[in-house]
């Protein structure tokens, strides 16, 4: 059983997910997206794989979410907590930063 409040996690996920399905899908096709972040054994980055998972979640009705979906939503909210802190934001050239690209992979456009 999950050790988080699904409603609280859902509300924060929806609040921070400021990219539409189409925007995220288009972003994930870019080289910047594919190369942002830590690479896994299969050659894909963690963030890119997470973005693909988030797309699948965005296609579902809330009532159809699986426990694995809920865990990914909770992980995503945790990622936001860690990376949206002001101390993580680059002091210049945000638009071309690894920080910005990584957040976009997780469905959050920090420049919106």
From TrEMBL:
InterPro entries: DUF3140 (IPR021487)
Biased composition (Basic and acidic residues): 32-41
Region (Disordered): 32-55
Pfam family, one: DUF3140
PANTHER family per record: DNA-BINDING PROTEIN, POSSIBLE DNA-BINDING PROTEIN
Full protein name: DUF3140 domain-containing protein
UniProt source species: Nonlabens ponticola
């Amino acid at each position: 059983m999950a050790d988080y409040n699904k409603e609280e996690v859902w509300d924060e996920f929806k609040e921070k997910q400021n990219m539409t399905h189409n925007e995220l899908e288009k972003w994930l096709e870019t080289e910047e997206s594919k190369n942002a972040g830590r690479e896994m054994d299969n050659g894909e980055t963690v963030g890119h794989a997470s973005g693909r998972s988030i797309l699948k979640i965005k296609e579902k009705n809330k009532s159809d979410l699986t426990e694995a979906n809920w865990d990914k939503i909770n992980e995503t909210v945790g990622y936001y907590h860690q990376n949206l802190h002001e101390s993580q934001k680059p002091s210049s050239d945000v638009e071309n930063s690894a920080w910005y690209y990584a957040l976009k992979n997780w469905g959050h456009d920090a420049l919106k």
